[in-house]
Amino acid sequence: MLVKDKSTFDSMFSLESYTQNTEDALMSNNSEGESDENPIRLQDKAEEFSALMWSLYSLPAEIAFSMTVQANDLQLIHLARIAHKYQFRSTESWALSALTTYHSNATVSPSVQNLVQITELSILCDCKALLNAAVAKWKRLLGEGRAVAVAIGVAERLNLRSLLGLAYYSMMLKGREAWDSDPHLNSRQRIRLLSGHYNLIKLCEDLPSSPPRLTHDHSCVRKGKCKNAFAAFWRLILMTKDGGLVGQVLKLQSADLLAKVMLAESIIRAFAEGNIPTLDLSESGEMHEKCLQIALHAAQDKVKEVQDNLVDWFSDVV
């Protein structure tokens, strides 16, 4: 196995290596690995080495079990880590695949500690599929308001931009009291939260007058009026004091930019699909039918833009 998998130990078992080592041993008996009294000492954790031995000697049924949702993911983490270190490529690939399958299952809820290790491992081994599965788990935790400060720390340390922005955003929505009392946050992170809160409030204030950029269908001959109608519709969504779907926007926190653009997008979608037939836009003019579909895509792009740029608004104050 050590030779077949092209690991770090590959050359140790070749005839050439044996001959060379024998000649060296005649000159010195102090070389590591030349005798039982002076073995090779591996600087590894016991649980990682145990996982490697498990992969070499476990029964087929045990291997098959590790590919199910009942698998011991911590054992697979240890295996992937030591396999990566010693370049057991096929073993590493198999362990990463098993972990990806395990954590891609929506019913699996790993501990925060294991999720941190999974995220670190995905970066160490450059496994994008596993990283995507880990980030999805983090997002679920953030949506539940759990382990937010831990997510900030992990995302900062591993430079996970999208996760970092969402983690800061989730912590910001918890409020100042939560920031100040969370022991996992440092002073620099609290300053970033204050900066983000200020920036997002300003963006929310400007949002009604900043509709997504609209490109018109080639059949639209009244582009100016169509553009003005969409701008008025956008303002109506974000500024109306009436109830119903439009009025829901005003129930959100003043700095909750992401929720506002997502709700605006859903309202535009409902209007484009004819699910808000009673919405009166007569004062704003009418949009071209095909431009309305383009406006929906523009709103979707706006949501993605906000999601992608969240981290930029939580900047250090110079």
From TrEMBL:
InterPro entries: SKP1/BTB/POZ_sf. This is BTB domain-containing protein. It comes from Mycena metata.
